[in-house]
Design a protein that fits this description.
18 strands, binds adenosine-5'-diphosphate, alpha+beta, binds magnesium ion, three-stranded antiparallel sheet, elongated, single chain, binds zinc ion
């Protein structure tokens, strides 16, 4: 496979599509026990609304925030993994705005202008897209607090009221801002997939948790004004939101009007974007340094300590999988695109000797079943042992490959071991010659025309094999069936 690094600034992709996409990704640091500036539990999912709050995260007068050291550890680790230059002295800013999702009327965040120093600057993520390595540059990484979670009755633009849950207010977030280097919705999805794999390998965040990885997408067409799409609640929704917005902007341009710079809201239920407000300008936020927090000094030693603890990243894992299990680079790339998938593969390899066979089943049948159900491997009840047991059953001649495919879709859906499914549905392969012969005789009687044709036409033989398979619901051993049908035909020829 020939691969080259595409320089985003010289990309011809952009000239072709005219689409420019830049992302602002918010990642909750779910590996922490507490919030970013107070001791409240960060384990807010499924908890009674407004039960995990304190004077600090509610912003009551006189309360003082203290920066969570472990949050900085995680942030530094992500910055290193994204090749971003870490600031040795980083400070927090107040972003002032009046809205119910922040009781303080400001969000503690970081800023890269007017003297602000974000956690880190620059960096990049490389990922595979259409057989080449694509690079998306990172502008900056910053730490900030999550605002409260809002829920609406029905849709945002028609809801008669808004419910506010402050349990999420103050949760540690990492904001990752990219350059507008992506040129299609697909590229954006592949970039996010790689980013998620990196972050999950670091153990910083669990993307399976609802709302733990969110993203705002900025998109412009043919050098026009950019539109910011907010409220994309999961990485999965990004592609849909961008596809919708590309079509909307194209239609505007075709009709001769121009795209306004504005913020639009992604409505996942109705699958469209709606205009919320024209974009605030920087000065609306009155950014200034947070006087209640000391700057965070990140020494070279602190960074070294974290580098030392850094786990294996997807790219290194890909190289290792190729070496250790002798699988093609392509397979290793697909498997490491998700931590859960790579973990699943490696666990299977402890239980079954043929790694390539395992990877084939994961990349084709398992992937297809997951896609059909619209779930990820971590949401399926399949266990590595179920897949390897199934492969052993094929090797032992207990089931055919065709039956195995059927069984796998049941394993993925219901999480039952293959042995149980085989028993329950009576799927053991029929390898008994007398039993198969009986069925062949029956088929020969039922389809005399096909038998006649089969004497000269190999296609008609396949038809007869098909009938035996149908009769046995795919359980007849295909090799034995084929042999016996030919034998029976010979006998017919001679009579
Ligand atoms: P703001 O503070 O106004 O949101 P940022 O500097 O944080 O501005 O950048 C926001 C995002 O907008 C970045 O991800 C950047 O890549 C993206 N962006 C900038 N210019 C364009 C453009 N012309 N088309 C699409 N996205 C853009
Ligand atoms: Mg921004
Ligand atoms: Zn609190």
């Amino acid at each position: 496979m020939v691969k080259k690094l595409v320089n985003p600034e010289k990309s011809t992709q952009f000239e072709k599509s005219g689409v420019k996409i830049g992302l602002e990704i918010h990642v909750q640091i779910t590996a922490l026990n507490t919030k970013l500036f107070c001791g409240c539990s960060s384990d807010y999912r499924g908890k009674e609304p407004n039960s995990l709050v304190c004077p600090v995260c509610l912003g009551l007068p006189g309360s003082l925030p203290v920066t969570n050291r472990r949050a900085v550890d995680s942030a530094v680790m992500v910055a290193r993994a994204l090749n971003s230059k870490i600031s040795h002295r980083t400070i927090f800013y107040r972003k002032n705005y009046f809205y119910v999702d922040m009781t303080k009327n400001f969000q503690i965040t970081q800023y890269d202008k007017a003297g602000g120093i974000p956690l880190s600057i620059g960096g990049w993520v490389d990922f595979e897209a259409n057989g080449t390595i694509k690079r998306v540059r990172i502008i900056r990484l910053q730490m900030e607090e999550d605002p409260a979670r809002l829920s609406y009755h029905g849709t945002i633009d028609s809801s008669p009221y808004t419910l506010v849950d402050y349990n999420r207010a103050g949760i540690a977030l990492l904001e990752i801002v990219t350059e507008p280097d992506m040129t299609s919705a697909d590229e954006a999805r592949l970039f996010l997939q790689k980013l998620r794999s990196i972050i999950e390998h670091l153990g910083v965040s669990n993307g399976d948790l609802q709302g733990s990885m969110r993203c705002d997408a900025n998109i412009s067409l043919q050098g026009g004004k950019r539109v910011e799409i907010k409220n994309i609640s999961s990485f999965r929704e990004v592609k849909r939101a961008l596809q919708y917005e590309i079509i909307r902007q194209k239609q505007l341009i075709r009709r001769g009007s121009t795209v306004k710079q504005e913020t639009r809201h992604w409505d996942a239920d109705r699958r469209l974007t709606i205009s919320l407000r024209t974009k605030e300008t920087e000065s609306d936020y009155r950014y200034f340094p947070e006087p209640d927090l000391v700057p965070v000094e990140i020494s070279e030693n602190w960074i070294k300590e974290i580098e030392f603890k850094m786990p294996e990243l997807p790219d290194a894992r890909k190289t290792r999988l190729v070496k250790e299990f002798d699988i093609p680079e392509y397979d290793a790339g697909v498997l490491t695109s998700s931590k859960a998938l790579a973990d699943f593969f490696e666990e299977c390899c402890c239980l079954y000797p043929d790694a390539k066979k395992i990877s084939n089943w994961i990349m084709t049948d398992l992937a297809r079943n997951l896609k059909d159900l619209g779930i990820e491997i971590s949401e399926s009840k399949i266990k590595p042992k179920y897949l390897t047991d199934m492969l052993k059953l094929i090797d032992e001649g207990e089931i055919s490959g065709k039956i195995a495919k059927k069984i796998l879709s049941k394993i993925v859906r219901d999480g039952e071991p293959p042995q149980k499914i085989i028993q329950k549905e009576n799927l053991i392969k029929i390898g008994d010659k007398t039993q198969i012969q009986k069925i062949i005789d029956k088929v020969f009687e039922e389809f005399p025309k096909a038998v006649q044709d089969a004497k000269t036409d190999p296609n008609a033989i396949n038809y007869l094999v098909g009938q035996v398979m149908q009769e046995t619901r795919g359980k007849a051993d295909p090799e034995i069936t084929n042999k016996l049908i030919r034998k029976t035909l010979e006998k017919h020829k001679n009579t």
